[in-house]
Amino acid sequence: MSREKDIITRIANQLPRSDKQLNNLFESDSEIIQFDFTKLLFTVDEFSDEDHFRDHDPYILGWNLTVATISDILASGGLPIYYGHSVMIDKNKWDDFYLERFSTGIADVLKKTKACFIGGDVGSSDHWHYTGIALGETNNTVTRIGAKSGDIILMTGQIGVGNLEAALNLYSRNLLLNKILKHYKTYLAIRFNESKLISQYATSCIDSSDGVLNAVNTLSDLNHTGFELTHTPYLRNGVLACKILSKPKELLLMGECGEYELVFTIDKKDLASFLQKSKEQKLSFSHIGCMIEEPGKILATNNSYIDFSGFNISARDYKDVNLYLDALNNYIDRHGNK
Predict the structure, then answer these.
(1) pTM of the model
(2) Is there a contact between 266 and 154 (Cβ–Cβ < 8 Å)?
């Protein structure tokens, strides 16, 4: 068990829980509460400059933090209905213009999802800090539990959006990277319509808030399966950044600055129907692999093979991000074949 999960478990074990809560710890992206004839979904997410979102554009920062918060609701098959937050502003940088643009970014996401803001709290510090709170509802919940060997693994979007964002933040002084990707803007995608379709077919679902490898690994561990990834739809600019920085592109998969996409499994017999529905609704998904029997955890694309069965590297265990990246690189060197 990771240190983070150990802390959560120790705290939760001391707190009273409702018999109307339908999920156990770690089983769902949102907490699921039976309320009359519907199911309520609740999530809280915390962000700071340690998450490596660039904050030079307040509108984009507000947009991305809100999308990142409600992705838990969407991963659970729900619709966000209410939203709140606690904002700790950077008292040295966030002026009135910044606050207005930041808030407009939040508002535009809420308008697109038809969620309403209901309140929050504000403070100031030397560094910004944001806590997003979302309440949703659903009649068709999807959790992280239910996948089995043979199920197909799919995802929305591309791999590496969040890790590219982190790289542009961490390596902002790299002259070549800055020259080529200086004007690149990261807008996290709202997978509102995709979530509706996924909830009708998925055997399990999770968002990629901690990266795609972490998402697949979590589904694998919770469902006592292995996995084989055979297709990795890497973001093109992410691959370019890796080349500039002399880093393996697999870091886009392994890194924990996630893209907040939806990673899910479907029974093989339902795949054709799902793809037909997605075509009719003009929605796009990538088939990235399948669940297999334990203990295999494999990345096996055309030009690389990495055994992840012993992978246990967590960014939260490293105070220095460079040491974390070195650990990922070393893992690839020790467990990969190209």
Answers:
(1) 0.96
(2) yes
Q: Which CATH class is domain 16-138?
A: alpha beta
pLDDT tens readout for residues 18-53: 999 999 999 999 999 999 989 999 999 999 998 999
The CA–CA distances, whole Å, from 248 to 260, 304, 322, 330 equal 22, 11, 14, 11
Residue 80, C-beta contacts closer than 8 angstroms, at least 6 positions apart:
70, 73, 74, 110, 113, 115, 134, 135, 136
CATH 3.30.1330.10 positions along the chain are 16-138
Residue 2 pLDDT greater than 80, yes or no:
no
How many other C-beta atoms lie within 10 A of the C-beta of residue 40?
21
pLDDT tens sequence across 240-299? 999 999 999 999 999 999 999 999 999 999 999 999 999 999 999 999 999 999 999 999
Q: What is the CATH number of domain 152-337?
A: 3.90.650.10
